[in-house]
Amino acid sequence: MGCAPGCRLEPGCPTRGRPWAPRAPRTWAAPPCDPAWPPRAWSPPASEQRPRPARARPRARASRCPPPPRGAAEAASRSRRVPSPSCHPKSSLRSHPHRRSLSLDLSGAKRRKMADKILPQRIRELVPESQAYMDLLAFERKLDQTIMRKRVDIQEALKRPMKQKRKLRLYISNTFNPAKPDAEDSDGSIASWELRVEGKLLDDPSKQKRKFSSFFKSLVIELDKDLYGPDNHLVEWHRTPTTQETDGFQVKRPGDLSVRCTLLLMLDYQPPQFKLDPRLARLLGLHTQSRSAIVQALWQYVKTNRLQDSHDKEYINGDKYFQQIFDCPRLKFSEIPQRLTALLLPPDPIVINHVISVDPSDQKKTACYDIDVEVEEPLKGQMSSFLLSTANQQEISALDSKIHETIESINQLKIQRDFMLSFSRDPKGYIQDLLRSQSRDLKVMTDVAGNPEEERRAEFYHQPWSQEAVSRYFYCKIQQRRQELEQSLVVRNT
């Protein structure tokens, strides 16, 4: 009797003792009811399969029927059972209304984009009036780009100091209080004078008035040292981080003689300014300026006189004036800010000489002086408020949400229109296509294996795979019974 292919149990089998290697299975899909798919191999009838004699030494246990490779078969089965969206274009359009509304809700939860506002081309073809909406959308895009560009320009402008020169009018007045012999208190019995220093901006358009002391870093009033001595002739005020701004300064001293005084006012420059060394001031034509303006003027002088090295642009070849100021014939431009430190001095204070008169005929005498000061550009506050303003953001967001909801409603109406139009053209065919599509979607959602609609028909089991599946099933059962018999014989012999 011949051996079946793969048999290792018959004593005369030439393949006895060799490892069993199954033939490569075919890659068509197995039926949904059978989890195993056999290769095309011959199986011996049950009558010809004999158990091994009991007197023989038990050999190694026969291996069970190896499972078929599941990669190709399962891939083929899955490709046959589960419809691919690309294979069924109607399924994406005629899907279940509940699933489509759910997908729209999920998309609405995501971040809105500009592309979500665009109407599809099919809708624009159906409704020609929608082109007006697309024109408005293009205009909105251009407007947003312009506003964004202007916002960037404003941000860059705010990084630079925006100052304008204004006139600060300084009022210096004094009053004299003669002595009163019949006064009860000691203050009234002694003659005294009072000096007041006040000021205001001329033609100030801003509603919020700026305090007088905010223009100065320090103020020193120097009185006659011969009259008030070396310890009481100075009145000083210096700005500190905790300084309370005031509208003026007041000094009161006893005395009945006219007093010469000197006022030293140091302006509070923002950004800080410096007085240039006389040689550098003559070279650049500047007296007092900020550090950045000085460096810019120096660079302009280098370019005008072509002092930059032609081979190495990093170096500057100084002329005779340049060498006298920086004390070197050649230096890097990056070294100039460091070398400028020794050439920059504190700015000169504003010096005002005033006479405090105690003449009874001139009870109140006021002197006026105009000082050039730099104040913030009024437009800077408006620019800052424009960047920080969020008043219209909520309204814009609400309108955008309304536009997105309207576009989604239009898309849903387009789907309903296509549904009704297809149904009106071919009611029977469309209903059948819809049912097939919904059946496939239902199997995908419920993860149901197999195809019940095909399995309930008899033609499904007359296909070629059914014969091989039956042979494989019986072959596996026989192998299982043979293994059980061998195990029982081994237990009995022991």
UniProtKB/TrEMBL annotation:
Residues 11-109 are annotated as: Disordered. One of its GO terms (cellular component) is nucleoplasm. Coiled coil: none annotated. Residues 14-31, 71-90 have a biased composition (Low complexity). The keyword Manganese does not apply. It comes from the Eukaryota. Residues 269-346 form the DM2 domain. Residues 52-62, 91-101 have a biased composition (Basic residues). Residues 32-42 have a biased composition (Pro residues). The keyword Phosphoprotein applies. It holds the Pfam family SWIB. Keywords: Phosphoprotein. PANTHER family: SWI/SNF-RELATED MATRIX-ASSOCIATED ACTIN-DEPENDENT REGULATOR OF CHROMATIN SUBFAMILY D. Belongs to the SMARCD family. This is SWI/SNF-related matrix-associated actin-dependent regulator of chromatin subfamily D member 3 isoform X1. It comes from Mustela putorius furo.
